[in-house]
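User: Show me a protein chain along with its predicted structure.
Assistant: Here is one chain, sequence first, then structure tokens.
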Amino acid sequence: MHQFDILGKINQPMQQAIIASTPPPADYPFSTCPDEYTSVPFSSDFETRRRAFFSFILQNPAPTTPKAPWHELARLAGGASPHEGVLNAALDYIDNRYDGSDCTLHAYIRLLNQYRHHLRLSEELIARSEMTIRNFKYWPDEPGQDEMCSWTESHFILFASAGYLAGQLFPDEHFTNSGRSGAEMMESFRHRIQRWMDLRFYTGFSEWLSNVYYDEDLTALLSLVDFCKDENIQRRATMLTDLLLFEIAVNSFAGVFGCSHGRSYEAMHKWAAQESIIDTQKLLFGRGVFAGCDNMSAASFALSLRYRLPEVIYSIANDGQRAELLQRQRVGICIDQASWWGLEPDNLENGLQLLTLEAYLHPHTARLFVKMLNRFDWWENPYFMPYRQRRRLLQILSASRLLPMLAHHYRHDVCRNTREQANLYTYRTPDYMLSSAQDYRKGDGGDQQHIWQATLGPNAVCFTNHPARMAGPPPNYWTGSGSLPRVAQIKNVLIAIYHITRFPALFVSNELEYTHAWIPRDQFEEVIELEGWIFARLGEGFLGLLSQHPYRWHDLPGEDRGREVLAEGKDNIWICELGRRQVDGEFSQFIDRILQAEVQLSRLFVRYQSPSQGFLEFGWDGHFRQDGRDVPIENFPRYGSPYVQADFPSELITIQHDEKILELDWTVGRRTASGYVGI
């Protein structure tokens, strides 16, 4: 029987550890007490789920990651004394301006707003927290070197909201690093927050459906929801929180956010307990697991003073027995259309908004990016080391206006981080979910994009990619892609076409000429291989996977043994079809029908007579066709599902399920719901 691995298998990207130098409270746990995964809601009552979350926190020590202070805040809210050694070590982390300090800082913004006078907190800790907040570097234009990433979509709002709320805490005091008063800090960050929020409501999140970075977005937004005194910002932060939770609800399978992701990492693809969102799912929706690996938003929701979950979102999250759910969604913008959104690449403020899409050496933004490297002294930031190695060349080309030409020549490589508009497709039944980004930047280099995934259980998943390199930072072996595929999906059937080319590269060249699939045999109840197909079953959910070229299993010692399938060839086509007992009969019948189906595979084109979806035709170029008719794989609506129909872009989004409703009107900042969970 399937066994859920609570701890996962792979560590997060390396960061400085939070190690306490003083003893913990007498009742502090030293060993972990794992929680149990549940695929069905363990309670319909929010207070019961909240108490269960606090119980988990009180039975486990804090992680040693920069998110450790959130664990201690939850201990405090759960009725226990926090480990001040952990809290002081985390303040050291912030003072050193290590990467991730913005995540850590929000815990202290909450601490001072919500628990400043708590009897279990020492006066020394409060005083030191205040000093750290007044001394922090909140924006790239402030002086001082640092190792922080402050410009991606999630980090932008973490920094901007922290700067605003810090100023609100100390409006008349002097912030030593910026040289501004708190009131001046509030004014400078207000406009940044508003622009960031406007673009996300209208166009969605470029870090689409991220099982890592939605945790950070939610944490920043909840700080604004709970503590921002500007009602306009507070209401809109609440509305965006609603949308993020709706997206999680409709793109999850049994508490697992197992869909396509704009940014993710190897651990989160493979092992559900490593997802940063899974604790939040169990707290808010009742499904998932309290893993405590990498989570802030669960603590933020458990501690929140003002946010109330609309009952319609809870209802949708637990609508898992619907026979089928099809969700289409468009997110993001095209960089060459940025001017339409008021983002001309002609000033630093616009440049920072464009960097939330990671448009670094994009031809449209390259000269402005070099200007930012100079202005913010980013050449020394570890994230920009590849640019530092080419500093003189980039500055000369930027000054001579030749840089956009170079960027265009190397665009397949230097734009691999850039997240442009994506059309997302998720199909879910009670026994499986299949999700993908349709025809997303085919042939370009990828970074952290997770293009498609089939999910039958927490760790019973399948996906493919082209490995960029054997190891190293993203993109690497399992995170991101050396070369992005062209993918199309129609309900339970997906086709992924890979065409690996050696394009000009400054950073990552495509040296590995094969594609591979993750299909962990030990996480399924049955795996059968016949006529080039790999068939797998978990419960009443079925999966069939076909590679155009012969495959072999990874058989060397290590995590990938018996879980990775490799197929040689620069060009390859993968077909994935899912089924379920209620529709397809027994597993053996599902297998027989697929084996009898006609499959014609040429170099970059496939014709497949799917038993469930009819005659499918798809190639590297041209339309995706079903039974002779074109199937749209672009220009999706903002949202399209049984719960919501909203054009792209939308000023009004109405979410409905049964008699429950949530209406979000961005033009006037109005949020109207039929009811809220727990009220």
